[in-house]
Amino acid sequence: MPLPESAVIAAELRTAMGKLTRRVKLEDQMPLGQVAVLGELDRNGAMTTSELAAGQRVRPQSMARAVGLLMDQGLITRRAHPTDGRKSLVELSEAGRALLEEERERRADWLARAIDAELSEEERELLARAIGLVGRLAAH
Question: What is the pLDDT of residues 32-81, one digit of tens each?
Fold first, then answer.
């Protein structure tokens, strides 16, 4: 059972991180679901549509539509699966990689500007130290 103060910190941290994540995602210029698919492919490499659907926790039919839209935009490509001829893999195209990097840079730029505008030098130093703590929690 967590300590009472740990439970309070946990609730407040989850709420604050959720708000921050939602605010940063407002900087995206393409639909969140499409950015999520591109990010998944960037992190994990080529995948089947079913694997993407499982990773994003959506129905395979929904992922098939998203993959089709991304292919139409030239952001991903499809190739034969190396060991199973019945399947195909989708992967980021160079255009998809470039667009994903632009989206990430836009998010980071907004966050950097917010940090500069809202936090004192002392608060920025405290935030910088806290990043390691949040990273440790994420790895737990």
Answer: 889 999 999 999 999 999 999 999 999 999 999 999 999 999 999 999 99
| 94-118 helix and 4-25 helix, angle to the nearest 10 degrees | 120
pLDDT score for 120: 97
Q: Are strands 76-80 and 88-92 parallel, antiparallel or unpaired?
A: antiparallel
Radius of gyration of the chain measured on its C-alpha atoms:
19
Tokens of 15: 């709420």
Show the tokens assigned to 70: 């991304």
Cα–Cα distance, 45 to 51 (Å, whole number) = 11
DSSP string, 10-36: HHHHHHHHHHHHHHHHTT-SS-HHHHH
Label residue 7 left, alpha or beta by phi (over 0 means left) and psi (-120 to 50 means alpha): alpha
Task: Specify whether the CB–CB gap between 90 and 49 falls below 8 A.
Answer: yes
**Cα 57 to chain centroid, rounded:** 14
Describe the crossing of helices 49-56 and 60-72 by its angle, rounded to 10 degrees. Answer: 110
How far, in whole angstroms, is CA 102 from its chain's centroid? 13
